[in-house]
Amino acid sequence: MKRILITGGAGFIGSHLCEKLLNDGNEVICIDNYFTGSKKNIVHLLDNPYFELIRHDIAHPYFIEVDYIYNLACPASPVHYQYNPIKTIKTSVMGAINMLGLAKRIKAKILQASTSEVYGDPLLHPQPEHYWGNANPIGLRSCYDEGKRCAESLFMNYQKQNNVKIKIIRIFNTYGPKMHPNDGRVVSNFIVQALKGEPITIFGDGTQTRSFQYVDDLITAMMKTMETADDFVGPINIGNPNEFSMLQLAQEVIDLTGTKSKIVYKPLSADDPLQRCPDISLAKKILDWQPKIELREGLSKTIEYFEKELINV
């Protein structure tokens, strides 16, 4: 049994990780300030004697004794991270400093949930880990992109200067149950619009592409990364290399929901990348991992979740 701290543990990805680590026989401490996370995501875990929930903002220091730290805390959708951009930067940067300081003091291993957003609007396709990216440092997305880039730098320097045991993963588009219905991400947007019979909104002409990873595949990769040898620190891409256009995604959602919704087009958002797709060669080699759940299967499970959520609203 490991004692494991998860920051952002009540969020979409964090709540799935809490559940999986508990099921595998670990003790889990979940920290969240509920800016985008929800107690509803982890309320079913509260009766477990090996689960602890703490309301705290990691922009402020926190002291605890643990073996592992998964640092997931940060709003991750444009709607939320642009709502309070200064808070977003503080969460990424001050949060990283505080959690790295904790890991240094207690000699814990720490994993940083970074993002494919560090690649910006990429000029290299698909994106390998050695690509430095094409991000706008002062654009609308910079509070998130540059916050995560700075966090990666902090992790690398704590490892080099203080021998902190670190791991860095770069998460590509992930979807699944427990996504917030209004989080502004494309999968949840399309599904909720379809289930409500509202027009499905595509920004731009719909030819821009993303790769969509089901959350269970991500959780497996995160845990595998944490268990790699200490001399492997990353960064490592975690995502699904199968590429779909926004129009293809919309049509899949229409087909699976049986909606009468029509597609409408609006202007493309500023700094919205036209392509985003991971090169996962390193993950295959180091983790012996690749995603198993295809888009149609994952969408079906996610639609089933949202159908229940919308009934209860």
Give a description of the structure.
- The protein has helices spanning 12-23, 78-81, 85-106, 142-162, 186-195, 215-226, 246-257, 281-287, 295-312; strands at residues 3-7, 27-32, 51-55, 68-71, 109-115, 166-171, 174-175, 200-203, 209-211, 213-214, 236-238, 243-245, 263-266.
- Helix 1 links the parallel strand 1 and strand 2 (27-32).
- A seven-stranded parallel β-sheet has the order 3-2-1-4-5-6-11, with helices on both faces. The chain has a two-stranded parallel ribbon with strand order 7-10.
- It starts with a strand and ends with a helix.
- The mean pLDDT is 93.
- By secondary structure, it is α/β, with parallel strands linked by helices.
- Helix 5 (186-195) runs parallel beside helix 7 (246-257), helix 5 packs across helix 9 and helix 7 (246-257) crosses helix 9 (295-312).
